[in-house]
Amino acid sequence: MAMVYFRLNVFFLLFVAARGVEVTDENNGIPYGVDCSFPIHYKNLRCNGLLPEQESIYETFMEGCYAKYGSKHCDDYENDRIEMNLKQPESMVNYTDTGFKKIKAPTELFQLLKTHFDRNHAKMKEEKWPKGNIYVNHWASPTYMISVEDTEMEGGSLDLKNKVWNAAKPVVEAWTGMELKPTSQYGIRVYTEGAILNPHADRLPLVSSAIVNVAQDVDEDWLLEVYDRNGNAVNVTMEPGDMVLYESGSLIHGRPFPLKGRYYANIFIHFEPTGRPLNFENYDYVEEMDEFFPPYLLPNGGWADEWRRRNPTGWHQASPSAAHVDTLPAFEAAAHNDVKTLQQIAMEDSRSLFAKDRNGWMPIHEAARGGCKEALEFLVDQGVPMNAKTHKNKGVTPLTIAINAHSEDHDAVRYLKEMGAEL
């Protein structure tokens, strides 16, 4: 019981510290920073004995990955995670003072998610992770997925996915003060007993995001650990219906303390700032935008070179400078995997599916960047060239974009390869 009291004391002090109240070293309960609960900037824990059990937990975590995949695959992922943690957050534009905020989810949003979970939790599918992926200890505590767009699930559809995005978007926009566009929605992930979520910053373009706790059956709170603007750990508790807004590309977040309970179900809803302020009065912001880097990344930051390597053609956003303003819905629909809208566009003006913006990007390139397999299938069926290159044939193909944005194992990548697409 002494350890339980000690941890609760630390978490209370962190709660207070996050709100600007002076914290004293009472009962050895002091706030901690990075590399204490889990390696974040460096692999060696530097905690001065504050959380002694965490060192062995991390060792077990990595040993489990080694046993499953071999050290090379696991270390590659782990080194990449730590490099991102070091360089990416300091290279991001911060849109809020704190980087995170806990609220109650809008009633409509929570009801959509809870209904879908209740209908389909018995049909959840084990999540498949790439070889060596160390973000969750899935080799010891499998994770399961209840996708909102999986038509094998009762009520699952692209329409439901869009309803979730539409219900969350105004909340995240109001918090950040920026116009956002959807980038990713993982569905409802169900963690199991013993699960650990390795502290990390999300891969871009996952920038402005929300976590909603849909359901849980736990013996004690499974703490969400985030790091504030001063590098101090803050532990956040969640219950069903709670929603945490967070700047996921710049905020280190994870759950390094093993889950004690049967399951914990969250959905992750991600957006990308367009660069336009939410209540803009003029277009002055356009002049301030970099022609190559996205508006949320500092061109001189430590992550800029790595972002350039992963995105050799730069950031692309369909805009009023595109060839025809009336073709913009095709770009947006492709980026969001909205096949229904693409079908309607094809009937009304199929030329829009072949349109190019000022950088030579077509809807098929947006679908590739978003990992939108169904949109890719539809566009290829409509005759859109799957090997079309950006930048007047001097750029990259959809397959290259999909691999850079995702992985060799992604469904969109596998589809393009099966169709004989070229790099």
UniProtKB/TrEMBL annotation:
Record key words, sorted: ANK repeat, Signal
Signal peptide coordinates: 1-20
The keyword Signal is annotated on this UniProt entry: yes
Domain of life per record: Eukaryota
One Pfam family recorded for the sequence: Ank_2
ANK repeat residues: 359-391, 394-423
Name of protein: Ankyrin repeat domain protein
Organism taxonomic ancestry: Eukaryota, Sar, Stramenopiles, Ochrophyta, Bacillariophyta
